[in-house]
Amino acid sequence: MSQLTPTDRFDELTAIVRFLLYLKKHPKAGITEIIKGTPAGQRAIYSAKNYAQQNKLIDITMKTESPYGPMYSLNEKGKKVAEHLESLQKILDT
Predict the structure, then answer these.
(1) DSSP string, the chain
(2) Residue 20 pLDDT more than 70?
(3) pTM (two decimals)
(4) Which end of the chain is more exposed for a tag (fewer CB within 10 A), N or C?
(5) CB neighbours of 9 closer than 8 A, spacing ≥ 6?
(6) pLDDT in tens, 55-87
(7) Using CB atoms within 10 A of its CB, is residue 45 exposed (0-12), middle (13-18) or buried (19+)?
(8) Per residue in 46-79, is it b (16+ CB within 10 Å) or e — as a string?
(9) In whole angstroms, how large is the CA radius of gyration of the chain?
């Protein structure tokens, strides 16, 4: 990972949280759907996807119908992380 400014690092962490929470609500999604449904930039979402892959938070399967491409879903570890993030979000929203 390249050297990030504090603002870049915050944006990256925010995208990771949003990526995981999106997959919690939408159990199987392609990257285009995630980008469209998440209030974060395309670059940030790809970075979040890479982070989730590297930290073994997601499973990747290939679509069997057109348009073909990878589908992302949370694995057990990813679900646990997303549940904690969702709990934190509820606390912050009250």
Answers:
(1) -----HHHHHHHHHHHHHHHHHHHHSSSB-HHHHHHHSSS-HHHHHHHHHHHHHTT-EEEEE-SSSSP-EEEEE-HHHHHHHHHHHHHHHHHH-
(2) yes
(3) 0.84
(4) C
(5) none
(6) 999 999 999 888 889 999 999 999 999 999 999
(7) buried
(8) ebbbebbeeeebbeeeeeeeeeeeebbebeeebb
(9) 13
Q: What are phi and psi of 78, to 5 degrees?
A: -65, -40
Peptide bond into 67 cis (omega under 30): yes
- Percent of the chain at pLDDT > 70 equals 89
Question: Distance between CA atoms of 45 and 18, rounded to whole angstroms?
Answer: 9
Q: How far apart are CA 54 and CA 35, in angstroms?
A: 19
